[in-house]
Protein 1
Amino acid sequence: MAGSGFLKFRVDYENNKDLPVGEGVHSDIVSAGGHLWRIECYPNGIGTLAGGELSLFFKHMSKSGTGRVEGIFEAFLMDRDGVPSTTAVGRTDVFKLDGNASGKCDNRGWIWFVKRADLEKNYVKDGHITFVCAILVISDSPIPVPSSDIGIHLGSLLDRMEGTDVSFTIDGETFLAHRAVLAARSPVFRAELFGSMAEAKMPSITLHDIAPAAFRVMLQFVYTDALPGEDELGESPVEMFQDLLAVADRYALDRLRLMCAQKLWDNLSVDTVATTLACAETYNCRELKDICFDFFAVEKKFKEAVFTHGFALLVQKYPCISAELKEKVRT
């Protein structure tokens, strides 16, 4: 059984930065995976190893009878511009706690989460610092915990278009979205929407060289981490997956890229292998390219595929692939 929880923890650093070692401030108690937790921040560290670093811990607050707990903790700081940090970040390995059967509180975290000098230089805003914390719990508790439904909730947020703060226009069609969600899922969106690029200041962004239908499905994936059924992808699912592969490469969505590669492999045939190989080469999908080479290596399939229109275009556009392919077939 698994469950997850997320918490934004804002700390009054200015009024707590001089606390003695081992004394800290804590968040409200939150529920995740059928257990209670809180976040504890020690501005001057904790324990005998403290020395110029802030410490951060997740504490298990359920008192008794909750059983053994296994899970993962993750936390990062928001910088002064409200952008997630890539350096002041921590993720634990899978932990095991006793579940407080004895009434003792268990915790996990980082004695050296961030240096005080870096913290005060890059993360303190209006006297405060902000952590974003995530808890993923796998528990042996006899109490059944439903699977995560965060994708359903985020998907409905996209469907209802509540709180959107950016729009994209493609061939006259407009798509509304949330900057924070896009930035959290894609480093490219993060650079565009929160970095120094012009798009960061624009409420509406016009995109070119991208299919509107593919962008719509990509947005659905970003919010739900899932793809719609093939019966929802129009008359040609193969073309849609090729377009999605292009979008995934453009926005560095690696999971989507591999999901599209798997779908294209599932639909691979003599008629589609050449265009699929061209797509794999164009959008940097080595895994799919290798599979297409293996398909061509079967003599009967190769003899049939070379007479397709797609193969003629492939050889014309990518002569280097033609050379690789001949070498592969020979071996």
Note: The chain is about 40% helix and 25% strand.
Protein 2
Amino acid sequence: MVSGSNGTTSFMTDFLQKCGGYSVVDGGFATELERHGADLNDPLWSAKCLVSSPHLVRKVHLDYLDAGANIIITASYQATIQGFEAKGFSTEEAEALLRRSVEIACEAREIYYDRCMKDSWDFTGSGRISRRPVLVAASVGSYGAYLADGSEYSGDYGDAVSLATLKEFHRRRVQILANSGTDLIAFETIPNKLEAQAYAELLEEEGITIPAWFSFNSKDGINVVSGDSILECASIADSCEQVVAVGINCTAPRFIHGLILSVRKVTSKPVIIYPNSGETYNAELKKWVESTGVRDEDFVSYIGKWCDAGASLFGGCCRTTPNTIKAISRVLSNKSLPSANLNIQM
């Protein structure tokens, strides 16, 4: 874990250097939980498995580590204190489940490293064992994700939801996750400028000392889903001291290139992108429907173009799989800087 502004400033650039210049983020979580038999038809969505089947959460993390991920994201996207309380859990139990989401990811990382040690002993010139760097990112989903009404894909929370409303909604969850042992916090699928501002102010008000990233979602390749300018949203992230990467997630692959260029206009911080499969979420049916979805191999064909546009961290969001991440890892391993040879993938 990193503390202090100087450590935070260099956190992501140092990590990327250890990875060889580019980093692989994991892929769709709920998609894999369902593939392993989980029923996620619940307001808690993937966070339900923190209660019912934590072993599946651990397995999905391990699947992505085996596929080559350098960053695994916790199953806390839709895990909120308010959401757990609505299901009958006490505040203390809800807070414990948030912590547990990070513990499970950290356990998966240790299991993965233990397996690597047993399966392959690789030594550097100094005689020390080299292993692929892996970070745990604690996911914070938007207020719309808690509402479970699809508003995370519209950013329309209504006039009654103010900056103060959003800060108070997220405050305790951010406090818990920041002190859970995670390496950084991933503020994901941010649908509007107001919520980005709420996150930035929360990080400052609470004196959060660990790094974070802000990633937004778009449905037109120009603005975030609410219609707010991606330039304005990314500028908020750029001005926040604790934010070490800015980018886009849960957005169709065809929009990513233009969005990277837009983000790069307002920040020099590393750009992270993890698009969805290209399908569209139907809030009424509560499922993803085919639109211009792309197969794994087609998805990966964009990676070189995204690298050239200035992105440094690559993964997948909804409906992507370990196969997607494995293919991304393979492409990036061919583009990595010479320093990557010091971090042998085992």
Note: Residues 49 and 134 are 23 Å apart (CA to CA).
Protein 3
Amino acid sequence: MESPTQTCASAPFDHVKADVILRSADGVEFRVFMLFLSLASPFFETLFGLPQASDGTSDQEMKDGIAVIAVSEDSKTLDLFLRFCYPSTLAEDPCLDNLTEVLSVLAAARKYSLDLIERKVCQALANPKVLETEPLRSFAIARNARLKHETITAARHNLRQPLIPALFAEINLITASDFLALLTYHKKCAIAVKALMKDFTWMTNHYGNIDSCIWLFNRPRYNQYCCGQGTDTRFLPWNTAPLAWWTTYMQEVYELLQDSPSGDTVRTAADRTIQKVRSATCAACSGRVKEGMTEFSNLLALKVEETVAPIELEMDF
């Protein structure tokens, strides 16, 4: 097999006064300073401290009078890794928003004993933006790396997603047992939340009495008749039929929480309900639905989060 064509890395890894060259697996040469790497990594400190033959008998490859060290990482990974080693005045810490790069950088960090990068990787996996959009990928990467806190955090965020996910590339990073543990955790949370939806004590305790929740009911005493009454006997707070649109909301949330047992599921469905009621012809409900449903959905979301909080992801680390 032919060796890859050798090219020079971009700045700051092209300095003419560099004292060692790291050659990536794909043939890119990084001209770097031993001092920076030694200060950042005990591995490099030991490597560069090894005695060198002074009689020219060493088989060490040389180029432009300095040693060339071949490494197994590709140029993309090596570039990211080295930027963490260099002072920030010469190279800013790279952004690890791309989860595809995280695992290879973490492997390099562990190989070269650079704890700083491992902490940065943990921060990248715990990034709210990443967790909101790709919790399952974060879970797989964190689990593969045996990062306990990040694995558990990603599993918790994955409750916002359906129980059975779509196929994703990183699924090969975890075992069948890992995946089963995640699905089991997800299902346990859904079962716990289902029990919450069968007992409305949390609701009646919060509001105190039906008069504090007047937006929710037709009230003949106040000549308030609108939108019809719900007939689903599962959802009768204070044993009183609520407005039909609230019953519809609760029916929807009840089903959604079986698949995605998260407070976000509750709030998102509430937003849809508010828009539907406001677009209807009922002046009374459209004027008070936002305030009433915002308070209620925040309460229900809180109770959902409290319910799933004690449930543990059963997985050895």
Note: DSSP finds 13 helices and five strands in the chain.
